[in-house]
Every structure is written in C-alpha cells, then in structure tokens.
Amino acid sequence: MKWCVLVAVGEEKLHQPSQIAEFIGINRTAASRTLRQMEAEGLIVRTGGLGDKRSTNVTLTDKAQGILNQAIPRVAFIGKWFREKLSPVELEQLENILNKLLDGEERGFSQL
C-alpha cells in the first residue's frame, strides 16, 4: 500500500487524501491509516490546505522521494522483462483479462 501512495503523490502528483484513496482503490479510512503510518515513518508530511483548513495536503519527504527514485527504474525493468516474454497478441489478451477481472472491483478494493 505504501508503494502505491508513493506513486500517487510522487508520480501522479495527487496531494489530497481522497485523490490518493481513489487512485489506489481504497476507502478514505484505509488511506488515512496508511498516511498516518507513513507520516510516523518519516515518508510523508501532511499539512492543512491553503484555502480550507479542513483539507489536508500530502507531500513526500526527501527520504520517500529517494525510495521512489530507486524503485521506479527497477519496476520499469521488471515490467519490460515480463512484457518481452509475451507476443503483442498475448499482451493484448492479458490486458483484456486483467481489465475484466478488475471491472467493478473498486468496492472490493476499498475493504483492503
């Protein structure tokens, strides 16, 4: 879950907990719990929103950015490695199967 938050904030530039929760496919409570843990570990900073003090803005710390920067090339390499094992037709079939499995599962993921 933490990797997903790192990607959401660092790569997707999502800074509101609700945006992060939606990107990951979890509910707001699960996102808040994960953000609290990550804040305690020194991976994120949560601050009050600029115009609305009820909102929260999430940013990565230097520590988290370093972890993310190390992970991105590794993940890209692994993805390329596995994609090269499949033909273009097989890749399309796999994508179709994964999309079918994930269709409508936002509700299920929110329980994670």
Automatic annotation (TrEMBL):
Keywords: DNA-binding, Transcription, Transcription regulation. The keyword Protein biosynthesis does not apply. It comes from the Bacteria. Residues 1-103 form the HTH marR-type domain. It holds the Pfam family MarR_2. Gene3D superfamilies: Winged helix-like DNA-binding domain superfamily/Winged helix DNA-binding domain. The keyword Iron does not apply. PANTHER family: TRANSCRIPTIONAL REGULATOR, MARR, TRANSCRIPTIONAL REPRESSOR OF EMRAB OPERON. This is HTH marR-type domain-containing protein.
